[in-house]
Fold this protein.
Amino acid sequence: MARPHPLYRFYERRLAAGLDRRRLPKHVGVLVDGNRRWARQSGTSTEAGHAAGAQKIVEFLGWCHELGIEVVTLYILSTENLKRPAAELEPLLGIISDLMDTLTEQGVYRVQPVGALELLPPRLAACLEDLVERTAGNPGPHLNIAVGYGGRQEIVDAVREVLTDALEAGADLRELAQHLSVEHISEHLYTRGQPDPDLLIRTSGEQRLSGFLMWQSAYSEYYFCEALWPDFRRVDFLRALRDYASRQRRFGC
């Protein structure tokens, strides 16, 4: 890997020094998009693109830890991605498993899978569930790994849990319907108990959320970056944080 130009390093340090740490987001969500396109442009395999993306995740989490970001949610694999051809999907699942092993070895992040684990291959689902226990005592940041995730499915699952809990408690469903609130849904999301994301970043130049944290992102700030995920640099992240810190959040007002 080529060493960064001294002017680039100077610019990066200047950006970091200029950040107001009091205005940094507590929860950052990232759609890690562009691995396949990066592979095509690099003349390499799709598997190599996903491997480069996994390595970037490790690097990115180091930046978040350094800056004191408390919660990070990474959109890695959607429910739609599970329908990809086996020739692409199986290596990708293996790369995700290797990534989980790397995060465990680092002993830093408290990992929580968010998604429909029942849709995943049993081996990967078991790996993710085991990861929760193995990282529970780590200092943090708290890391949500969105694998087998769909925003609509999350809301359906939350409503299903609300109804199931009510039935088990012997509640009247008509009364529940009359008093159903935003809080009822929020308390049953995959990310229950966590702050909603302050900042959502998507790489690769696409300007859409693809169902990512649909409920939680109602008042989030969005930042779209042209860089493909494997090419995402620390300076790109610092620019996103600088842009976020300069905004006046309105929370729907």
About this structure: DSSP finds nine helices and six strands in the chain.
